[in-house]
Structures are given as C-alpha cells and as structure tokens.
Amino acid sequence: MIILKIGGGATINLEATIQDLAILKQNNPDEKIIIIHGANAVRDELASKLQIKKEVITSVSGYDSVLSNKDIIDLQMMAYAGLMNKRIVELCQQSNINAIGLSGLDGKLIQGKRNRGIKTKIDGKFKLLKDLAGKPKAINTKLLTLLLNANYTPILCVPIIDEKNIAINSENDDIVRVLTQELKLKENITVNKIIMLIEAPGFLDNKDDPTTLVKSITKEELQARTQQVEGRMKRKMLSLTKLFEAGASTVHISDGRTQTPITDIINGKGTIIQ
C-alpha cells in the first residue's frame, strides 16, 4: 500500500504526477494506492475572486494555521472537494487509473473531533478563537477497502466530519497519520511507503536555498529538525514525528514540480525519512 500526498501549491505538476503514477501502476498492477491532496492555491484564488478574507493565526505554541470559519469551509468544499478533487479524478481517468473522488464527509470517510479553538495572543492578551477545525480520529476503512478491492483508486480531501456531523477543516498530514494507523488496526493493511510531493526538492536545511537538500533523515532526528523550522513547516515536522509513532516505515518527500515526480523518488531524489 502506498499513500500519495499531493501538495496544494500552484506549481505542483498535477498532469505529470498522475501520468507518472500510471506508469508505476502499470509496472506494479497489484499495488494499492490512496491519494490525499491539497488545494491551497485554488482556495486562495477563489477567496480573492469572492472577496473572502483568509486569516492566518499563530498559536501560542508557535504554529501557523488558517482560521477556519464558515466562509473558509465553503471555500474548501468548492476548491478541495470540488474543483481540485474532480480535476485529479479527471487526470486519473485520462491515464487509465479508475479513480473515485471523496471528501471526508462522504460516507463519514474521515471522522474527527473539533478543536476547542486556537489559543493565541492579541494585543498582549490571550484569546481563544472559535475555529471550525479539528483532528481526524477515525477512518471508514470498510468503505476504503470496498473501493480498493474493486480496483478503484480513492482520491481524498478535506473537509472531514465532526462528532456533530458538521464539516470541519483538518491537516492532511494528520489524516495521513490516522489513515496509516487505522488501515493497520482495522484491516491489517500495512502502508509500506508514504510519498509527499511539495514545492521544493525535499527537506532543505535552508528553505531559501535548494542546494541545501537533506538526502536522508532518521526518524530519531525529526524532533531536532522540528526546532529548525518555522510556521507551517513546524507543524508538518511535528506531524511527521507522530506519523512514525503511528507505525510509518518510510516517508519520501520530493519535488512535485518536475516532469517525473514519482520516478524521481524511485531514482533516489528528494528526502527519505526512515
């Protein structure tokens, strides 16, 4: 089993990624694949057109996140579950990958618990901001295995569903972690490889210098590496640490902007964490 996480940046080469994935599937017809994708660039473009303001909040612990209000959830339904999800399904079908696109709402596929809010500091005072976001807690693995056993490739995205059946935002890195955990626990399916395609050659010692690529990181190093980064990358590194705690064996982080993103990983490009 492979989980492929495709970043939502504007320069991710979706067409090349799916074409390259089709070659992987042709060479490994029995390999099951689940795709989880972002849509940040599409969301921001829609927000601009609809004149919806996006607010990035830094928590007291130093993690950046987009404040998820009703307008942001509506944007997610349009950008993630709508345009981007169906675009990837379309590209898969064009490459003879029989894909089916689902958000976490569909069939209660990704169930979560809503956060109390984001604790932040404004004008020297601590405040708890209401946030339609939360952590994934369970996966409808029966639905996923039904699709996988029928040779469909699931294409998954936010929003997920909370304990009151309300759509909420969540982090894809957390979804990957819970998915890995639940597939093993409930279905005895081991995720052998997790591929993360981003807008960089891999993990960089200096985020502004692509020549500082770190080729390999041990899972024991992740905690120290978390202290090197800031903003959203800090959250991602923490999620990677938790991912290995959940049982992941190998994670590949590589450049999703190239003409052969999947082949690049096979050829040893990017960063491998194990």
List keywords for this structure.
Carbamate kinase; alpha/beta; 274 residues; two-stranded antiparallel ribbon; 16 strands; single chain
Oligomer: single chain
How much beta, percentage-wise?
Answer: 15-25%
Overall average residue pLDDT: 91
Give the biggest beta sheet. Answer: 8 strands, mixed
- Helix/strand structural class: alpha/beta
What is the share of helical residues? 25-40%
Please tell me what the overall shape is. Answer: globular
CATH A-level architecture: 3-Layer(aba) Sandwich
What's the total helix number? 8
Radius of gyration: 18 Å
Number of strands: 16
How would you describe this protein?
The longest helix has 25 residues, at 70-94. The strands form 5 sheets. An 8-stranded mixed β-sheet has the order 5-10-2-1-13-15-16-14, with helices on both faces. It has one domain (2-273): Acetylglutamate kinase-like (Carbamate kinase), CATH 3.40.1160. It contains 8 helices and 16 strands. It has 274 residues and is α/β, with parallel strands linked by helices. The model has no long low-confidence stretch (mean pLDDT 91). A hairpin with a 5-residue loop joins strand 3 and strand 4.
Record the SSE blueprint:
Elements: E1 2-6, H1 14-27, E2 33-37, H2 40-50, E3 56-58, E4 64-66, H3 70-94, E5 99-103, E6 110-114, E7 118-122, E8 125-129, E9 134-139, H4 141-149, E10 153-157, E11 160-161, E12 167-168, H5 172-187, E13 193-198, E14 216-217, H6 222-226, H7 231-245, E15 251-255, H8 261-266, E16 271-273
Parallel strand pairs: 1-2, 1-13, 2-10, 5-10, 13-15, 14-16
Antiparallel strand pairs: 3-4, 6-9, 7-8, 11-12, 15-16
